[in-house]
Amino acid sequence: MSSITQVQQDMLARMGQFAELAGGDAVRPASLPMAEAGGFGESFESALRAVDAEQHRSSQAMEAVDSGRSDDLVGAMVQSQKASVSFSALMQVRNKLASAFDDVMRMPL
């Protein structure tokens, strides 16, 4: 399984957990659901590390083609596009989280 697919499946699983939480009771202890699953910060860190690994694989493949060690130009370009898409998806998630945080901070009490 490619790392982008793994990141996407992890994000979908987290979205499912958040949907479950949104449909439940209004007040729950913050430590219960996320602490057992490893936490949101840990999940985001693993997604960040997966995107970083994808970027490194892409740069290694491009370097191999540039130096003549590999003739797989198409494979290097596909790897580069996978890294680009995974980075773009990560930035979109980060931007959504930042805007959600801003919205929560602007809520009247």
From TrEMBL:
<keyword id="KW-0969">Cilium</keyword>
<protein>
    <recommendedName>
        <fullName>Flagellar hook-basal body complex protein FliE</fullName>
    </recommendedName>
</protein>
<dbReference type="Pfam" id="PF02049">
    <property type="entry name" value="FliE"/>
</dbReference>
<dbReference type="InterPro" id="IPR001624">
    <property type="entry name" value="FliE"/>
</dbReference>
<dbReference type="GO" id="GO:0071973">
    <property type="term" value="P:bacterial-type flagellum-dependent cell motility"/>
</dbReference>
<keyword id="KW-0975">Bacterial flagellum</keyword>
<dbReference type="GO" id="GO:0009425">
    <property type="term" value="C:bacterial-type flagellum basal body"/>
</dbReference>
<comment type="similarity">
    <text>Belongs to the FliE family.</text>
</comment>
<dbReference type="GO" id="GO:0003774">
    <property type="term" value="F:cytoskeletal motor activity"/>
</dbReference>
<keyword id="KW-0282">Flagellum</keyword>
<dbReference type="GO" id="GO:0005198">
    <property type="term" value="F:structural molecule activity"/>
</dbReference>
<keyword id="KW-0966">Cell projection</keyword>
